[in-house]
Amino acid sequence: MEFRMLGPLEAWHEGSQIPLGDQQQRFVLVVLLLHANRPVSTVRLTEIVWGSNPARRDLVRGYINKLRNAFQDVGNVRIETMPTGYLLRVGAEQLDTARFDRLRAEAEVARTEDPHRAVELLRAAVGLWRGRFLEDVDIDRVGGPEVISPDDSHLDAVGDLAELEVETGDHRSARNRLRPVVRADPASQRHAEILMRSLLADGDRVAVVRVFHGTRDALAELGVEPGLVLRSLAARAERGEPTDSLPFQADAFTGRNAITQLLVELGVLDVNPISTGARDTHMTNPSWRWQAHGNV
């Protein structure tokens, strides 16, 4: 059996969706899922689902029995009665939230040695999402602020995946993946940067500039300026420069190459010598590298 929370709440067994009952029964199930393999007392269940209404405590046993009936033909899911309350016994691989975390962790390990394998793992992780976390459940009725949503982790994973797709040459997949993300949140500089890189690699310089303007305007509403890399990518698109990507971190800059010259012309990088000596020694001097960071 599989419980799905990365989107609307669903339970599946052998290709069939399991009916989960009315809204309040679903609230009880979600509380047990969020505390999987840990006991939850009847008092606590009542407080979470019904707030300060202890009269509802008598409903808990009825909903537990209905859930047990719903899962009676499933051998790998049990709701156990414990001295301290009820416990939903379920394997980690039966929860899409746990599988998402595992796939992300495996991708992180594989990223250096086998980036293509990391792409496969992240695609599987991102593919588990069908919408917002428990999007059809009133979070206030299953724990409220105590519930930690993995929605931000989803966006991080999308960014990690798109970044790897660009690095491995699949810039069109990255482009298609990030367009709706940046459209929904144009102030996300990380996603905008990767999208701009993918568009630049695809030769769509007009779209690069359009993304930059959208992100710049969204950031302006927050009183924030676009970062160095975003400005540099937009400038390259406007000037029609080659489509090879800028390094992802300023530490990668070494020497007065075309990229360095561009940053100098943009006024965002100061390469004046800090120490005197042999000709152009400031280009590889660690002090120059520190000064580049200071202007970011």
From TrEMBL:
Domain of life: Bacteria
Keyword DNA-binding appears in the UniProt entry: yes
BP-aspect Gene Ontology terms: phosphorelay signal transduction system; regulation of DNA-templated transcription
Record's keyword annotation contains Transcription regulation: yes
Domain OmpR/PhoB-type: 15-88
GO molecular function: DNA binding
Bacterial transcriptional activator domain mapped to chain residues: 95-238
Annotated keywords: DNA-binding, Transcription, Transcription regulation
Protein family per UniProt: Belongs to the AfsR/DnrI/RedD regulatory family.
Name the record gives this protein: DNA-binding SARP family transcriptional activator
